[in-house]
């Protein structure tokens, strides 16, 4: 069942006409508008998220280790409490795959962290940094914004190819097709960094941990590329992102005693190994 399919066939036709035809002639001017566009309602996103979470559970080995899962959930909920206006409740999961250093956000606030990332993080603040970044994607509703763009593009292709546009593909198929490589555009990454680092700081974590984690991955890029490549594919790091993060952090009030680590981090890593 696909809650938002069919019913929206005419809407997708409309966005093609309204948004993409002018885009062909005026790309630069319209792109911020297109990036912000979201034709999926919050309610639809929640439904879609539930459906995707069920699919992900079938496809990925979710961790049942309560110490590990609770660790990520508690970090997630601590950060979420700093989000002013939250579109939907957030759900946190751990994927039991110590070889993959990654995290991703499915629609409707479903956030997944791989055990490989928990092993790679030197401390709790680095885990919180990644989780805060993912919460940034969720709060700004990047998965359904991306879906809006993908669907609109599909509409464009279908019109060019002369296929039936309404049946090009379903929403879940579109998103699941990119599962694991669920990537957002560069501007979305900047936005998730920006809001994420503010949540991280407000939650009392050392905000520079977001940078140190990126830097560590960048430094290891040459020595162990396969291990980290997934995170790079989904979150292309750039010196630009680090510069931007540094500028934001400099504008934040210094924390008297920021959380960097707790003893639980090592316990969790021992449980994974
Ligand atoms: Zn990201």
Quickly describe the structure.
The protein has 273 residues and is mainly alpha-helical.
Total E-strand runs = 3
Figure out the total of helices: 13
- Rg is 19 Å
- The residue fraction in helices comes out at 55-70%
Determine the N-to-C terminus distance: 39 Å
Outline, from the CA principal axes? globular
Bound molecules: zinc ion
Characterization of this structure:
With 273 residues, this protein is mainly α. It has 2 domains: 1-37, no CATH class; 41-272, no CATH class. The protein is built from 13 helices and 3 strands. It is globular and about 60 Å long. 37% of the residues are buried. The model is unreliable at 1-7, 20-30 and 165-169 (pLDDT under 50). The chain binds zinc ion. Zinc ion (ZN) binds next to helix 6 and helix 9.
Features:
273 residues, mainly alpha, 2 domains, 3-stranded mixed beta sheet, 13 helices, binds zinc ion
Per-chain topology:
Layout: H1 9-25, H2 27-36, H3 42-59, H4 66-80, E1 91-95, E2 103-106, E3 110-114, H5 115-120, H6 124-139, H7 142-161, H8 171-176, H9 186-202, H10 209-220, H11 225-234, H12 239-250, H13 263-272
Parallel strand pairs: 1-3
Antiparallel strand pairs: 2-3
Helix pairs in contact: 1-2, 1-7, 4-6, 6-9, 6-10, 9-12
The structure holds zinc ion.
């Amino acid at each position: 069942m696909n809650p938002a399919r069919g019913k929206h066939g005419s809407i997708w036709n409309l966005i093609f006409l309204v948004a993409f035809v002018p885009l062909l002639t005026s790309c630069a001017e319209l792109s911020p508008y297109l990036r912000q566009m979201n034709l999926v309602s919050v309610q639809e996103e929640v439904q879609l998220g539930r459906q995707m979470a069920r699919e992900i559970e079938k496809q990925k080995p979710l961790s049942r280790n309560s110490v590990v899962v609770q660790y990520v959930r508690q970090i997630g909920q601590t950060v979420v409490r700093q989000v002013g206006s939250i579109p939907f409740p957030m759900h946190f999961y751990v994927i039991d795959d110590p070889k993959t250093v990654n995290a991703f956000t499915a629609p409707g606030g479903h956030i997944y962290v791989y055990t490989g990332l928990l092993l790679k993080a030197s401390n709790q603040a680095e885990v919180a940094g990644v989780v805060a970044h993912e919460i940034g994607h969720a709060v700004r509703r990047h998965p359904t914004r991306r879906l809006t763009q993908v669907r609109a593009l599909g509409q464009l292709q279908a019109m060019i190819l002369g296929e039936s546009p309404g049946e090009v593909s379903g929403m879940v198929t579109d998103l699941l097709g990119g599962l694991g490589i669920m990537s957002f555009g560069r501007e979305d990454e900047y936005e998730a960094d920006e809001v994420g680092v503010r949540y991280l700081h407000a939650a009392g974590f050392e905000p520079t941990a977001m940078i140190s984690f990126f830097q560590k991955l960048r430094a290891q890029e040459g020595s162990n590329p396969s291990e980290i490549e997934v995170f790079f594919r989904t979150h292309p790091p750039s010196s630009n992102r680090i510069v931007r993060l540094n500028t934001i952090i400099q504008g934040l009030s210094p924390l008297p005693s920021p959380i960097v680590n707790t003893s639980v981090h090592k316990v969790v890593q021992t449980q994974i190994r």
